[in-house]
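Task 17 of the worksheet. Students: predict the tertiary structure of the chain below and write it out as structure tokens. Keep your answer in the requested format; marks are given for formatting as well as content.
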Amino acid sequence: MTALYAILDPAACVHHAPFVVAEGALRGGASILQLRAKSMSDRDRLDLAKRLCALTKTYGAVFVMNDRVDLALLAGADEVHLGQGDVSIAEARALAPQLRIGRSTHDRAQLEQAHIEGADRLAFGPLFETRSKVNAEPAVGLDAFFVAQTRLGKPLIAIGGIDVERARALAHRGLAAVAVISAICAAREPEAAARAFHEALR
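Model answer:
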């Protein structure tokens, strides 16, 4: 089964506090929870990360810290997810050999390079146009995504502009996970939104 990968962005949580959204996502079936909080201070981000790390443990889920290896270590995260502008996978591995490492990629060259460098998880996208990220990369499209996954021979994380219908179309296609941001963060009922995705991916 393709995993539901919920990305919590406090700036996108318009109806509920981020912690409430996170718990709703986990109750709804997310098995991976990533904190992406670029506008928060380090202190507030770390405090929230520690609370989320404890929360994910109660649900048997994985907690991922975005961008920051240092905060991932301090929070007790399971993984760190790195963007193209963050430290290298080798540098992250040297700092935190116990952490799994994910990498965001936006074209085939970046994807293959991250694979060579030993990323544990590879996200490729945005699959479709998305409003969840300022200055987002161009959409790669379904065909390019599946060609890349087949060529790499490794399940990928799909991200970017994915709604429930698109998630249903992606189910049973060998993906590692489908990542969702605004469709859960901005939902009036985060648990119901996450459950709809979880059911679509079954």
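Marker's comment: The beta strands are 3-8, 32-35, 62-66, 79-82, 100-105, 121-124, 157-159, 177-180. The longest helix spans residues 42-58.
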